[in-house]
Design the sequence.
């Protein structure tokens, strides 16, 4: 009796099984469906900012600007707050202190003083003829109480102080104390700095002085009004700015 013939081997077709192809098509369709849903949806910007702020804190990504008042929230996720707005708020507060102190003590000084603030600094501008005699660097006695008031406000803050002198373009008289407007502007800035050090008890390392002469005018030098505006000393409290910002 002969052996039975062996059963023929099952032939396996090349390539993936048909069900895998169908499954892959299904996954692709589902992916496209969810992408469409996402594209049609609206992004919740507030939650995005919260998530972004949380991730920045987790990975140590921080801006290199000083934060004075850290906001506190009830949620565990830290919100991404605007540091520039916080800084500007602080500088504006200092400016308001100066304005209020001057108003309380002197009732306003008209065109003798101007002030402004931005996110980096507070600037106080003293008009030259109100602060100094023509061609001289000695502070008028009538302006010393005002400078003492400014120094008192600045003493309570620890930012750097830059004092910059400016003049018009009219040459100085021969035989005077100073030969050039540049020398005069530097001497006037130094006089204000000396007053802050001696009368205002401000730390010396915080104060820097500069003189620009007639080279940084605020207005035209072609008429008396413009020249009067250009004769000034500017007192700047805040982060050390670029020289072009002084």
Sequence:
């Amino acid at each position: 009796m002969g052996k039975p013939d062996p059963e023929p081997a099952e032939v396996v077709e090349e390539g993936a099984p048909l069900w895998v192809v169908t499954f892959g098509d299904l996954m692709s369709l589902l992916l496209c469906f969810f992408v469409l849903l996402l594209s049609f949806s609206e992004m919740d910007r507030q939650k995005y900012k919260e998530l972004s702020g949380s991730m920045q804190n987790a990975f140590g990504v921080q801006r290199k600007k000083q934060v004075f008042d850290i906001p506190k929230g009830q949620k565990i996720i830290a919100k991404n707050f605007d540091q520039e707005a916080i800084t500007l708020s602080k500088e504006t507060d200092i400016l308001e202190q100066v304005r209020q102190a001057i108003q309380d003590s002197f009732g306003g000084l008209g065109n003798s003083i101007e002030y402004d603030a931005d996110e980096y600094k507070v600037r106080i501008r003293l008009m030259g003829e109100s602060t100094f005699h023509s061609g001289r660097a000695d502070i008028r006695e009538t302006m010393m109480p005002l400078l003492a008031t400014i120094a008192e406000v600045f003493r309570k803050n620890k930012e750097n102080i830059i004092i910059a002198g400016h003049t018009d373009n009219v040459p100085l008289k021969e035989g005077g104390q100073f030969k050039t407007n540049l020398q005069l502007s530097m001497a006037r800035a130094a006089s204000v700095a000396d007053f802050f050090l001696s009368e205002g008890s401000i730390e010396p390392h915080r104060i820097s002085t500069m003189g620009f002469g007639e080279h940084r005018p605020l207005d035209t030098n072609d008429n008396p009004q413009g020249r009067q505006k250009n004769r000034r000393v500017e007192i700047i409290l805040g982060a050390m700015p670029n020289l072009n910002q002084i």
Notes: The CA atoms of residues 91 and 130 lie 26 Å apart. The helical segments are 18-40, 45-58, 83-106, 128-131, 144-155, 181-199, 224-230. Residues 64-68, 73-87 have pLDDT under 50 and may be disordered.
